[in-house]
Amino acid sequence: MPLALWLRGLASKGPILCGVLVGLYLATHSRHGAATSPEAPWKALADNIPEAPPRGRVQAEEAPSISRTPQREARAFREDAREPQASVILKSPSETPELEATSAPSLGEQEPQECFDTNWALAGFDLQHSKESSALACQKQCQCTEHCTAFTYWQNGDCHAQTDKAPRMRALEAVTGPAFCPGAPAGALLPERAPDLPKMQTAPDRYEGPKVYVYELPERFRNGGKDSACFTVDCVFGGPPMVVQGVEIWASNQFHMPRMLYYRFMNSPRRTKDINEADVFFVPAYSFKPSEETPCADGGDLFNTLFQLNPSLQDPAWGTEKASRHLFADARGWETCNYMWQLAMPFRMFHRVNIELNGLEETGPEGWTDGKPFIWYQFPYPAVYHGHADATPAKLRSRGFARYLWSFTGTGRGIAGHLRSVITEQCNRCTRCGRETNLPEVNGAVTTEEGDSYRRIAEVKLQSTFCLEPPGDTVTRKSLVDSIVLGCIPVVFEHQELDMYEPFLSAEQFAAVALFVPEAEVVGGDAKVSIWAIGTYGGKTTRSINKKMRQLQKLYPEYSELLEALHPRFTQQERWDQVKRIFPKPTPIVDILSRLSEEDVRNKQEALALVAHRLVIGMDDSSEDAVRILLDNIVSNDAEAVAVERKSDLRPP
């Protein structure tokens, strides 16, 4: 019908109605043709149509309240649908013939249509506009938008995330509904910002731990002699600290763990200079980044120096008894210094720690350690918090949903680059996702700018319910430890991570605090995945492999089929084929996180409060932390260390 005749016919129905429809037509028409703000049609309506009574709904400018459950929102939304509304029937015109030929927008497959109202729209009060494939996708976008309580989806793909201040109108080619249907979790109703954490008065406990002897090695054994100038708290731990929401945040470099151990032992009241009364012996040799400037210590030079400082090491009886009480610390999970792999006695029995056991391997920690003659632990990356256990942020944070449903602090680099790009794309579209991409995780020195990025990272994590931790260059990252310590539920994507922090966190404790989401579930089976997504289990025997698999299946029963498919009895191609069959299509991150109820979230937060301090590297001995746990394990491992050494077939050449 020509526009002039259409408008002439409406003129008799009143000037206000005619003006409203003219405004809507022109604004919507321009949206399909000329460049126009997506809010234009709603503005035309809002300027001319009185808004319907709110019927007890919370206004948009109010802070969302946890008492507004999705069930109540949906009920109020449906009651409003029965209220008298403006007698206007809107039709979103389109210049696309195939869209005009369709009588109703696509609702998508298996959508909760009883929760939606077809041929209704909300007018105005847009929070966000996007293009979506279906009404359900539009609802998900609303769930991902702060303060969105309802949405309108048009046949041409326009999705409007709105507030419940918007009046309802009859509208052809439109679907509207609440952000959450009855029975959905209450995760959309978030506080604007979490309050600062309370200040805690802490005091040292009465722990009497092992006495530690530190070998007085020359400076050349630490970063090629270039580490001597760094022995203050600020230099070692990345200070001066910043205060973020009441928490002292340190710009701790991820490769400085050995330096922190050295500082801690040198300043510990448990340090002894009498080698005969020591329980643990620390060898302060390390390189943050093996290179020409900061080379690893020469193994022969190191071993000869240790023999000179402690001739008893060459005594077979003393060496066998005390060798396993010695500790090597390496800064990296790859590019490890050669002396860490020494197989000659007594060095083959020294305990080892570094920040990753997996490195670039497709298997878990067992692939690194099984069959070796020594006990080697994956020590936690240095977190941004180094205080007392009782004041750990995870312990003090309020429970329940935070301002951001989820967050991602990272870039698109690394072996799992496609997974990271998918996460970044979804986070960028979601106002309920916090993000920080300027990271100091790649290189060594911490500059002023990088120090400030630690502050922003901490701010995001302290205000997030879930923190996504995809792999990068290696299977895990410093950010995972930061999330745990700051009380943000970590989301991990590879099965190799699920037991990597024993003895600091058992596999059961890790399952209690973290959410495991297989990489292929997020990107889909046909997409490019990392080597870890189809990696198998490490282990020297079939029995140990099966034991590991059954343990993970018990802890993650929803992924039992996937964990079975990754067994090493299958070839890599067979594992890949099964993964594609299990996860043929990608699942949006918001859908995955929505599976957890508020009770589930609170349970994980309570678990974090109980164990997060076990991954902290404290600046002193005042409370339980990762350093204390390490020392306790070293002195209790005498029998196990002897058994591990005897079982190993690896001998020096």
UniProtKB/TrEMBL annotation:
GO terms for molecular function: glycosyltransferase activity. Transmembrane segments: none annotated. GO terms for cellular component: extracellular region. It holds the Pfam family Exostosin_GT47. GO terms for biological process: proteolysis. Residues 70-83 have a biased composition (Basic and acidic residues). Residues 115-181 form the Apple domain. Belongs to the glycosyltransferase 47 family. This is GT11 protein. It comes from Symbiodinium natans.
